[in-house]
Amino acid sequence: MLSALARFSRPHTIIATTIQVVALFLIAGGSQVMSPASLGPVLLTLVTCLALNIYIVGLNQITDVEIDRINKPRLPLASHEMSMREGRIVVALTGTVAVVGGWIAGAYLLGTVLIIMAIGTIYSVPPLRLKRFSLWAAVSIALARGVIANVGVALHYNDVYGGLTAFSPATLAVMAAFFFGFGLVIAIYKDIPDLMGDRAYGIETFTVKLGPKRAFNLGRIILTVGYAGVMAVAVSRLPQPDSVMLLVAQGAALGLFWYASARVDPSRKTSIARFYMFLWGLFYAQYIILSVYQITRGIA
Predict the structure, then answer these.
(1) Cis peptide preceding 266, ω within 30 of 0
(2) Which ranges in 191-211 belong to alpha helices (H)?
(3) pLDDT tens-digit map of 55-66
(4) How confident is the model over 143-183, as pLDDT tens digits?
(5) Which of 5, 124, 192, 215 is deepest in the core (most CB within 10 A)?
(6) Burial grade of 59 (CB within 10 A; 0-12, 13-18, 19 or more)
(7) In 144-240, where does DSSP find H-type helix?
(8) Selection from 247, 283, 287 nearest residue 153 by Cα
(9) Domains of the chain
(10) Nearest Cα residue to 257 out of 208, 217, 213
């Protein structure tokens, strides 16, 4: 049961949420206020966001169970390792924990939880079920993961730590723009291996509409523009050492992305599925890069 529950939570998203919450604390200047007392709000934020994460991915599996029997037959609901009743209990419990955790943490985190929960619900559940529409589905994921989560948790930390954090409007704007683009690419790429099931059930993803290769190249363009934008910000701050580090790190990440993507066959499910997980690795790395960049700026 524990193995099924772990797969139900979609581990790659759990890792992403954990890194996101911790990295935003460090980017906010958390290393300067690090103490046992300061870690309490971070832990509460992490538990709340992880519960929200499981609610979102769990609800999607409940509503997609028939499609997943074609696209992702190893998921616990699709493979009958978990019953629908058990799935609904997990979703109800984690949704409750997310709301209660947000309420305890404060208005900013509660608002973030409620907005993302609303987006995740209308993404998966009829009558709107936004995942049926390529553009709305991608925008929903990009807004929730890339913009609302980052801005909401940043404002929450700013509130908790008395306005001492390093989040300026410019910093938030750059982060939100980059991760919105990254969220779009994740949304596009996650559907490429699912072409058969999505087509069978009338889910109009970018892959269904454009084909695997064109959808894949669209993602390449979006992510390249995103990295180029952050590199332009770094260039504007040269010759500061922290900006050199950011420029080199972004160039290396972009180079790795193109090196790996050149070896992908979008028409082969196993090939694109492996690359999709590599993409999540770049997502994790970006938060680590930005954390190191902010700490370096603080030292300088």
Answers:
(1) no
(2) 195-200, 206-210
(3) 999 999 999 999
(4) 999 999 999 999 999 898 876 566 778 888 999 999 999 99
(5) 192
(6) buried
(7) 149-160, 169-190, 195-200, 206-210, 212-236
(8) 287
(9) 2-299 (1.10.357.140)
(10) 217
